[in-house]
Amino acid sequence: MAGSSEEAPDYGRGVVIMDDWPGYDLNLFTYPQHYYGDLEYVLIPHGIIVDRTERLAKDIMKDIGYCDIMILCVLKGGYKFCVDLLEHLKNISRNADRFVSMKVDFIRLKSYKNDQSMGEMQIIGGNDLSTLAGKNVLIVEDVVGTGKTMRALLSSIEKYKPNMIKVASLLVKRTPRSDGFRPDYVGFEIPDLFVVGYALDYNEYFRDLNHICVINEHGKEKYQV
């Protein structure tokens, strides 16, 4: 509100989930039986993810201005967020007064083993990043933690001189290890927790979980490699 002494909310942070947020009891939701006993609680229910993703799509189309978009999806954790975001973008485009071309390419970044960052990022695939030259690029990611992985990817892409690069991340973690990188579009800002579900995995498990949940110690031990 104009003239108000209260600090305006920072919408660039997305939906902020505080450190003391207790989450939702698992018994309030349905989830795969094979994960019973492996989770602490539901951090973000699936329906809230869907609604927030729709709003992000509106913000992206408003900012980019109905220009053609090259979407670079970071696999594997980002695929579900990317698919849902793309569907919302297409729905908005259908009602636009001009056709908006949306092409999708994929890249894999490997930076975790079990629940620990390995420190160095491995880029798998995306050998022909030169095709991004002169394009409006939207990178779609699942989680930004320290920011180092995304900075490394951006550095690789910028060599090919795209017209524009924007980053949309479903989650951003508040962590003291952060280098300060912030995506252009953020779904949720969350505590420094290892979360699974909605295609986010722990050693390839939990991708079939619709909600974003916090894994417990039993689950980590059960699926450790």
Blueprint (SSEs and pairs):
Layout: E1 15-16, E2 39-44, H1 46-64, E3 69-75, H2 79-94, E4 102-113, E5 116-124, E6 136-144, H3 148-158, E7 164-173, E8 185-190, E9 195-196, E10 212-215, H4 217-222
Parallel strand pairs: 1-8, 3-4, 3-6, 6-7, 7-8
Antiparallel strand pairs: 2-10, 4-5, 9-10
Helix pairs in contact: 1-2
Catalytic activity: IMP + diphosphate = hypoxanthine + 5-phospho-alpha-D-ribose 1-diphosphate
GO molecular function: hypoxanthine phosphoribosyltransferase activity; metal ion binding; nucleotide binding
Organism: Zalophus californianus (California sealion)
Describe this structure in words.
The protein has helices spanning about 45-65, 80-95, 150-160, 215-220; strands at about 15, 40-45, 70-75, 100-115, 115-125, 135-145, 165-175, 185-190, 195, 210-215. The chain has four helices and ten strands, in the order E-E-H-E-H-E-E-E-H-E-E-E-E-H. The model is unreliable at about 1-10 (pLDDT under 50). The protein has a domain at about 50-190: Rossmann fold, CATH 3.40.50.2020. The longest helix is centred in the first third of the chain and has 19 residues, at about 45-65. The protein is globular, with a radius of gyration of 18 Å. It has a seven-stranded mixed beta sheet, sandwiched between helices. Helix 1 (about 45-65) packs across helix 2 (about 80-95). It is α/β, with parallel strands linked by helices and about 220 residues long. Its EC number is 2.4.2.8. It catalyses: IMP + diphosphate = hypoxanthine + 5-phospho-alpha-D-ribose 1-diphosphate. This is Hypoxanthine phosphoribosyltransferase. Pathway: Purine metabolism; IMP biosynthesis via salvage pathway; IMP from hypoxanthine: step 1/1.
